Amino acid sequence: MKSKTLATWLAVLGGGLGVHRLYMRGPRDPWAWAFWPPTLVGLVGVWRMRQLGQDDMLSWALIPLLGLSLSVAMLSAIVIGLTPDERWAARHGAPGEPPVASGWGPVLGVITALMVGGAVLMGTIAFGGQKFFEWEQRQAGADAGR
Questions:
Q1: 82 phi and psi, to 5 degrees?
Q2: What is the average per-residue pLDDT within 79-103?
Q3: pTM for this predicted structure
């Protein structure tokens, strides 16, 4: 039987790397490995911005991938944590085994995921919007200078 509490908290703490999917479905789950590329590419964007400054346009495109990956991970934590115990036992438990009450662990994980996910998603939208409009201004200035 897989623990719903552990799966929820793995999604909160390591969801950007698909750790929760590896726990629930194993290393053959292709969606678990799909979390790695956008997270790592987004971290490269963060590194580029720290090294090259805020004028690096490639980092503008890469950083939102990290935000979206983390937002998806927090959504996964919410879905896992809010899954009814009976349905969780049917999917991830031994056949014929009664459901185990999960208690407050998943609820606290969902609350944390809502806070972190909301902040990350809003930050990603704000960052992406700001950089898009800065790019538009640069393009308009370049066109006016011609």
A1: -95, 0
A2: 86
A3: 0.85
